[in-house]
Amino acid sequence: QVMLNNYPLWAKFHKHQTEMIITKQGRRMFPFLSFNLSGLNPVAHYSVCVDVVLVDQHHWRYQGGKWVQCGKAEGNMPGNRLYLHPDSPNTGAHWMRQEVSFGKLKLTNNKGASNNVGQMIVLQSLHKYQPRLHVTEVKEGEGEETYPSPHTHTFAFPETQFIAVTAYQNADITQLKIDHNPFAKGFRDNFDSMYAASEG
Amino acid sequence: QVMLNNYPLWAKFHKHQTEMIITKQGRRMFPFLSFNLSGLNPVAHYSVCVDVVLVDQHHWRYQGGKWVQCGKAEGNMPGNRLYLHPDSPNTGAHWMRQEVSFGKLKLTNNKGASNNVGQMIVLQSLHKYQPRLHVTEVKEGEGEETYPSPHTHTFAFPETQFIAVTAYQNADITQLKIDHNPFAKGFRDNFDSMYAASEG
DNA sequence: CCCTTTTCACCTAGGTGGTAAGAT
DNA sequence: ATCTTACCACCTAGGTGAAAAGGG
């Protein structure tokens, strides 16, 4: 009923324990979440959103080339962890017509950003998170829907788990980002090595 | 109940007879349409869209520094002239919370672009057009709504009329575009004149 | 001849990881 | 010592009118 679209890419990162940068003004995820939905009622209305929940109650630390648990987390901090897909609400037909992507979802560690509800997801650095997809049927006249609603279906893919960081810890993750994120093209060394010989 | 937001700018262009470029791949309007809505039911759902209709049945030609009518138009050509606001459908509260802008609406003369319904508005060059705003209440279970619906309110501002062109005719219009559109900043001559003296 | 299309330099707008300074 | 922030050069992505080329 729900398929993770860029599964092979997620799997590559997951093998090295995915890290996602969080900044004050917000940072996009890479890879970003993208799903194929099916089995919805084409004429019913749905809201689609993503939230991000703690996988465990521990701090994590990168030490000796490995991620290790380290003390207890402070429990759930305040701050928005829900991102409503910008197309919401919309018909089942709309959601099934093409992939449902969250390329503009941003992660932040700025607790004051909770005001911009639905704009940014607020996380704590060095904690491990699991993104989840929610598909909620919207009934007429309910206005701003309460969440969670009794008509919500929730999906989670373990391959999309990540540790929130303010700077990359594992060089393998950094290299995967540089290799696959078009915005990091400036850090690929294809051209440097092409012309290196003439500079010696 | 509906206010045109950037009225002073529209008025400046209207005084010289606004022109809008149309291209095959689509060109944004400048100025773009932006409205303030009020008086909606906050919890009801609405779709908001813009269409563009012929003002008269004539070709227009720019001759001797003036726009003059010139023969009859071929009547209504096929092609989409309806642009659904990307936030549609949404609650009355959403539409009234902030300005409703159509900054990404694109105009084209490419009749084949009708496939991308709701993406581009197809117009004929050298014809005069009037953009209109439509606010339609959406009832549950109707799926893809028919248009026009009996619950639609329509608004039109004469200041937003324009003649579609493939190249600007009136130099006054060109200068207004250069002066006010941030993307045309490269054609402002502020800096040229600053340094002209040292180049003579 | 008049209108349209293509290409271009020049912008806006904003997403990257690196780096060095700052904070605790 | 460890984590965070601010700034940077370098990208992607795409919106401008000018000018030249194309078409009927």
Automatic annotation (TrEMBL), chains A, B:
Protein localization: Nucleus
Residues annotated as signal peptide: none
Domain T-box span(s) in chain numbering: 4-189
Domain of life where this protein originates: Eukaryota
Name of the featured protein: T-box transcription factor TBX21
Organism: Bucco capensis
Shown residues in whole-protein numbering: 31 to 230 of 437
